[in-house]
Input
Amino acid sequence: MSININHSRLLLLLICLSGLVAGVALPAASSAAEQAPPAVNRPALTVRTTTLREDKWARTLSANGSILPWQEAIISAQVQGLRISEVRVSIGDHVQQGEVLLTLDNFARTGSESDSSNAAQGRIVSPDSGVISAANATVGSMPKSGDELFRLIRKGRLEWHADLTAEELMLIRKGMAAEITVGEGRVIKGTVRAISPSVDPKTRYGYALVTVPDGSGIVAGAFARGTFDVSGGKRPLQSLPQSAVMQRGSKTFVLIVGPDNHVHERAVTVGQRFGDRVQIKEGLKANEPVVEIGGAFLTEGDVVQIVKG
Output
């Protein structure tokens, strides 16, 4: 009997002790909960924002090509059996129409330029004014009839032969302004003189011929890049920095910063590019803040902190 009473007392004592411990621990847990700071949304990234800017650009089309003579005249021997006695011009010389380029033996022996028959056979004259671009005549040689002696760039005029696809050719018009870049960034202004009516079936390219102003100091055969002003002048548009516009697959978008500093993707339609800026045609309103740099590190709904300046 005494053993059962002792067990009962021991059980009662243990229950009282556990209640005492719980009573002490509960206030401590409650106090810790009261002291914990409230949870806050910390910004994911500090960003700078930008808005649409009003610009005026000219729509341009770029192309590569070569500087070529406007027209070349091939000057050849008209008779054979006559030896060249004197060559009066060389490559790069500027000549006038009718100027004597070389003389032949029979003309040199007669010494009379008034004799029309001797003059016709005894000398080669320039058919036009221009620049000698090739010279194959040498003193003492006996050219055959039809042999090329000289090649002449008529009037000394050069032009840019710009290679273009069929789609690009359809944007070009005669008289359209063009800028040609040659050498170490030197820019020459020209105008479209002619446009090919078809493209080469093998290369799929046609060409536009752009007149190069006299005295430009460029060399025939040089490679040149250029642009055509296909818009006919500068037109108003809205643009953003290139860094603010992103691409995912076929989707082009920007990140708008809402009033609560959450970012949201917005699809936009872009147009031409000029330097480090991109035309925005649709999808964005004026004064809407857009993440300028760092958008690639953000996802839909992220919180950002905006830095000024």
